[in-house]
Design brief:
single chain; 126 residues; alpha+beta; Nuclear Transport Factor 2, Chain: A; signal; DUF4783; DUF4783 domain-containing protein
Length: 126
């Protein structure tokens, strides 16, 4: 019994640090220019800001996904370079540069924890 208790507590500690983190999948989808894959991680409603357009608040996941995919296609987004990743409480920020044949675009993504995963709640591109 004395040997089992430490083993059980060690397993509990190890499992408490293991979470299903989809952030690497989001970053990989951005690096490959796959807007459809990124939009799978949108929350049910998000805020979306695109260059030279007004910010859209609380747009549905489907409409936001279509708009996001259209932006990637229209601007020939081919890749992504992560410049900053920071976590504060239940939220996380990703910032970087979307790459295309031109100057590229800066992107900031805000994610929140929801049901054991991270969901994108805000996308700002400028």
């Amino acid at each position: 019994m004395k040997k089992i208790l430490p083993l059980i507590s060690m397993c509990f500690v190890l499992f408490s640090f293991t979470t299903a983190d989809n952030v690497p999948a989001i970053i990989n989808a951005l690096k490959t220019g796959n807007a459809e894959e990124v939009s799978k991680y949108f929350d049910n409603f998000i805020d979306l800001k695109l260059p030279e357009k007004d910010e859209i608040k609380n747009v549905g996941k489907t409409q936001a996904g279509l708009t996001f995919q259209s932006f990637f296609k229209d601007n020939s987004i081919k890749g992504f370079e992560l410049t900053s990743q920071r976590e504060m409480g239940a939220t996380m920020y990703l910032a970087g540069k979307l790459q295309n044949a031109g100057k590229g675009y800066n992107i900031t993504i805000l994610l929140k924890n929801k049901d054991g995963d991270r969901q994108i709640i805000t996308v700002r591109i400028n």
